[in-house]
Amino acid sequence: MEKLNNASERQTDIDSAKIQKKMAETAIGARRAENLLYYSEQSRDLEHDFASRLSKATESTGQMTAKEFEKWEDEAIGYFDAIKKEIDESGVYLGLTGDLNLVAKEMAKIVAYMPRKGYETELATTIEAQAGAFYDERRNDLNAAIAESDLPEEEKQKDAKILRGFYPAVARHLDFKYMSPAEIMDYPRGAKARDDDRTVAHNDAIKSLNDINDLARKYGTRPFTARNFWPSDMCPKKSQSEELARIFRYDRDIVEEYYAIAFSSEVKRREARQAYEMRMGSFYR
To answer: Residues 243, 101: contact at Cβ < 8 Å?
Structure first.
C-alpha cells in the first residue's frame, strides 16, 4: 500500500510540474505576443510618420538628407531587431524553429504594408525603399572599406566582385520587366518559361542585395537596407502558406521599389524605350 501511495504522489508531482511548465510557457507566449503587437504597431506608426516627413522634405528641398534619413532608418532597424528577437525566442514555445510557414505568420507583423489592393502605391515611401536614394554613397563607402581592409587580397577581390554583381543582377530583372511585345512573343520556350526565368532573375536580385548588405556589416559600413529580404525560392510554391506567399510578395515588391529609386535613371530609360516600342507597333513586326 505504501508503495502505491508513493507512486501516486510521484505521479501527482510530475503532473503538477507539467501543469506549471505549461502555465509558464503560456504566460511567456502571451507576453511575447503582446511585445510583437507593440513593436509591429510602433513600426507601422513610424512608417506613416516617415512618409509624411518625406513628403514635406521633398517639397522643400527635393530630398531628405542622409543624416536625417539615417535617424529614421535606425529607429526602423531597432523595431525589426526587436521583433526578430521576439520571434527567435518564442520559437521554443510556438514551434517556429525550422518551419518557414509558421515563422511567416509572425513575420507578417514586421512589415508596415502587407499586400492588398493598391498597396504598391505606398511602397515607394517606406524607409526600406527610400534607402535606394543613398545607394551610391553606401556603395562607395563599402568599396573604400574593402580596398582599405587588412584582409587577404584574394578575399577582398572576392567581396569586391560580390559588390559589383548587384547592378548586373538588377539589370537582368529589368530586362524581363521591360521586354518589348516582340521580345515577349519571341521568347524561347514560351510564356511560362519567360515567367519562370523572370522569377529566377527577381530572386537573384533579392539575394544579391542581401549579399551586399552582409558585406556592409562585415566591413563595418552602413547596410544598404534596414534588413535582408526573403526570396520566394526559399520554399516551393506548393508548400507556401498564405502568410508566407504574402511575405515573399512584399519583399519582392519592396526590393523592386528600392532599386527603382537606386537606379532611377536606368528605369526611366527602359520605361521610355518600352513606351516607344509600344507606340511604334513592334508587336506587329
So the answer is: yes
Cβ burial of 127 (10 Å; 0-12, 13-18, 19+) is buried
Cell of 234: 526559399
- Lookup result for grid cell 587577404: 152
The length of the chain, given as a count of residues = 285
255: closest CA among 136, 164, 135? 135
Burial zone of 263 (CB within 10 Å; 0-12 exposed, 13-18 middle, 19+ buried): buried
1's grid cell: 500500500
Give the Cα separation of 241 and 105 in Å (integer).
9
| H-only helix segments in the chain | 2-61, 66-94, 100-107, 120-123, 127-130, 135-148, 153-164, 166-177, 181-185, 190-219, 242-262, 264-279
The C-alpha cell that represents 208 in the structure block: 544579391
Give pLDDT tens digits for 39-75: 777 887 888 899 889 989 888 777 899 999 999 999 9
pTM of the model: 0.81
Nearest to 166 by CA among 199, 120, 213: 213
In three-state secondary structure terms, 99 is coil
